[in-house]
Design brief:
Number of helices: 16
Bound molecules: zinc ion
CATH architecture of the largest domain: 3-Layer(aba) Sandwich
Largest sheet: 5 strands, parallel
Shape: globular
CATH superfamily of the largest domain: P-loop containing nucleotide triphosphate hydrolases
Order of helices and strands: HEHHEHHEHEHEHHHHHHHHH
Strand content: 5-15%
Radius of gyration: 22 Å
Length: 353
């Protein structure tokens, strides 16, 4: 991966290029945004630019062929420490951060980052899944964030600011990442072989809310069926309240019992609803979306089949607002089940209008 083939996030890239050129990098960055949009790849590319031996660190470029570039690509560079939540664990573990009980402070990220850089440049750490950092883990990491070793650079990667502990947030420079644009995601979808034709890739992109992770999940039959069922339920009159809330809950259960994946899915569910309301509003106002028209001129497959289009723009606008509000609450430690219940109750009432 290099900057030429990296897709999207131009603003963040320009910002980092500038900060690196002027040698004014903070020591800790908290990168937040939806899963599957390239935050980790971005962090690795910054690391590569700083460690590539064929360029000066201030040039913010990578050659792809020097030992450092090859090692970073292979995940073996001695100055790049990468950790993420292990598959069977619900949190980033203390072992990963400060070593096991026997090796406490003689192993783990907080220890390694204090070692002298092998390359003579700097130590860089990428900590993924910081949403899952428990208080104990955060406290052990805090000392490192408060007194970072000279030149060390730490990237913390999570999905939203609200999910982070205040102590971590306040010691980091926050960098926000937005979902990829449809054409950017379509490009990645084709590159990853998730779709062959560009029209097919664009359609998959439209349903995947800027996330390559969702795009790959959308290839799953069950995911597609759920999406259709959801659209159909929201677009029926009256809404079958118990059925809708059961459908959503069953879907969340099928994805994961664990917290973050469930929250990510719930956001996606709400995104589908928001898109549907927006699309219905456009149809109601006689403004078909240009993108839709280009792909399937006769029938807008993403749009509601009818009921929602007959609602007033004001009602649809309230539905959008209420759903966006629910989406924001997903990250505020509200239980996903309670959130689904409350949201479904309200949209059922509002759609009746
Ligand atoms: Zn290189």
């Amino acid at each position: 991966m290099d900057w030429e083939t990296f897709v999207g996030h131009h603003r963040q890239r320009g910002w980092f290029a500038n900060a690196v050129r002027q040698q004014r990098l903070a020591s800790t960055f908290l990168m937040v945004g939806p899963s599957g949009i390239g935050k980790r790849t971005f962090a690795r590319l910054v690391a590569k630019s700083l460690l590539c031996t064929n360029y000066q660190p201030t040039e913010f470029a990578t050659c792809g062929t020097c030992e450092a570039c090859v090692q970073i690509e292979a995940g073996t560079h001695p100055d790049l420490i990468e950790i993420k939540r292990e598959k069977d664990k619900s949190n980033l573990s203390m072992e990963q951060l400060v070593g096991s009980d026997e090796t406490r402070m003689r192993e783990g990220l907080c220890y390694e980052i204090r070692m002298r850089p092998y390359s003579g440049r700097r130590k860089i750490a990428i900590v993924d899944d910081v949403d899952t950092l428990a208080v104990e883990g955060a406290n052990s990491l805090l000392k490192t964030l408060e007194e970072p070793p000279p030149g060390a650079l730490i990237f913390l990667i999570g999905t939203s600011e609200q999910r982070q502990l205040r102590t971590i947030r306040s010691r980091s420079q926050i960098v926000r990442f937005a979902p990829l644009a449809n054409d950017e995601l379509a490009l990645l979808i084709q590159r990853h072989g998730l779709a062959d034709k560009s029209a097919e890739a664009l359609r998959l992109a439209q349903q995947s809310h800027g996330s390559l992770l969702l795009a790959s999940q959308m290839r799953d039959e069950a995911m597609r069926e759920f999406r259709e069922l959801l659209v159909e339920s929201l677009d029926s009159k009256p809404i079958d309240f118990p059925r809708l809330s059961k459908t959503i809950t069953a879907h969340l259960d099928s994805i994961a019992s664990e917290g973050q994946a469930r929250r990510d899915q719930l956001k996606w569910v709400l995104d589908i609803a928001i898109d549907l309301y927006r699309e219905s509003m456009r149809h109601g106002l006689g403004v078909p979306s240009a993108l839709d028209a280009a792909i399937h001129p006769s029938s807008a497959e993403n749009a509601a089949s009818g009921t929602l289009q007959r609602l007033s723009p004001e009602t649809l606008s309230s539905l959008i607002q209420r759903t966006q509000q629910a989406r924001e609450q997903v990250d505020r430690n509200v239980s996903p089940a309670a959130l689904v219940e409350a949201w479904v109750t309200e949209v059922t009432g509002m759609s009746r209008a």
